[in-house]
Structure formats: structure tokens, C-alpha cells
Amino acid sequence: MSVYVFVGPTIGTDEASKELDATFLPPAAQGDVYRIASEGARAIGIIDGYFENVPAVWHKEILWAMSQGVHVFGAASIGACRAAELHAFGMIGVGQIFELFLHGKLEDDDEVAVAHCPAEFGYRPTSVAMVNIRATLAAALATAIIAEPTRRKLERIAKDLFYPNRRYELVIKQAINEKLPGPELSHFADWLRSGAVDQKRIDALAMLRTMSHQIASDTKPNRVGYFFEHSWVWEQLVRESTAASSNSATDENTTASDPAGAR
Fold it and tell me: What are phi and psi of 118, to 5 degrees?
């Protein structure tokens, strides 16, 4: 079975490849799922994808892929968002972040967005996703590192920051300016070195393991209960994606590494 997974700042390919035998691709952009599915993919996992300076992976190309028998999974980042939005149509979502979006407890795309380095530096994130900050603050509260009023205020400070600026040091600096309890902030800053929660990575690993298990136990083509409409907008995407597929893989990867943000 041909298996492909789109990864980037959430998890490195070295770690991901230990969980699933697959071809790992850069973060997904519009048209990528269509191209991979049209080339014979039987299962696709979406973790990371571009959104800022490149059109994001389109819902309709995921619907088309599933209508062609492809099993499509999503988790952790834009994959979790798309899986929540397309859950009713058969996209398989995995993990806590997916569940939060599915049940409306999270709604904003910026919850999973991060700034990151380009491909040659392994897409290393330079900011912290809001979903990770929420999970970290919840863990700090659960272990009595901070009190509930401090957790709420730190969460609000982080949410108010533009996503590329979300870093713990900036959150703590603003908290000091707002005169939150000094001892709690000091304790929290020390605890972060070992206590910070990377929920996106946790969910990405869970998706890879789910894919590995399902692919091993079920190799039948996916079946859907909807009719896929070939609109003129869809046909335009097909034409553009077909033209783009003639480019070399190197050219495509270079183009995709230019944006500063992924989710």
C-alpha cells in the first residue's frame, strides 16, 4: 500500500518514520493531496500544512481523494482542523486537538499555527502553538505549579499574542508587566524546562500509530456515502495541479519552504 504523510514543524521525519513505513512529504499546500491521490496513494496522513503565503490544502481535494478510495487521516495541526471539518464525510481524525475542534471547544485556526524555519533547517518551530500552551498551562495547574487565576491570565496573554510571537518567555514577560504573582511565575519558568507539553507531537505520534495499525489490518479501498461534484473550480485545480506535477520535486520543495507559517 502506498502511504504518504505531510509533516513539518510538528514532528521530524526521523521520529515519524519509526512509527510508520511511509513516504514523508513537506507540509501540505493546495493541490498536494490531489496530486498524491492521483498518483496512486492508498492512505494519506495530514499533520502539517501551509496557510499564509501559499493556499492551504483544500477540503474538496480531500473529499475527492476519499471518493477515489483513499483513506485520509488528520491530526495535530491543520490535519486536525481538516479532520474535524470533514469528519462527517469520513476523514479520520486522531488525538486531543482533533477532538477539541470537532466538539467546538476550539475554533480558531491560529490555535495550531506556528512560525518555523525553512526545510533546510528541518522546519524547526520558532514559536509555540497555542494548543501546546493550553496543554502546558493545564499540566502546570494540575501539578500545583500555578493557581487557576494565574492559568487563566497566562492563557489570555498568550492568546492575545500574534502566533509568530507566542513564546513562553514573552508570555512570562507580559505576565510580570501585569504584576501576576512573582513566585508562581518563577516556579512556572523553572518547571517549563521539563514540564512543557507538546500536544501536537503527542497527537501526531498517535495518528501515525493509528495509521500503522489500520493499514496492517484493513487494506480495502475507502468507501464514501457522498457524490463528488466536479465543479468548474475543481476542474481549475485539477488543471493547475497537473501542470505543477511536471515540476521537479526539488522545485516543489523549494517553493513550499518559503512561507513563514504552517499549521
Answer: -70, 180
Residues contacting 237, CB < 8 A, separation 6+: 30, 31, 34, 58, 60, 61
| Residue-level length of the chain | 263
Q: Is residue 1 within 8 Å of 22, Cβ to Cβ? A: no
Q: Give the whole-angstrom CA distance, residue 154 versus residue 4.
A: 38
Residues of the chain below pLDDT 50:
248-260
Q: pTM here?
A: 0.89
Backbone φ and ψ for 73, nearest 5 degrees, come out as -115, 155
CA–CA gap between residue 252 and residue 257 (Å, rounded): 9
Other Cβ atoms within 10 Å of 172 Cβ, number: 18
pLDDT in tens, 121-134: 999 999 999 999 99
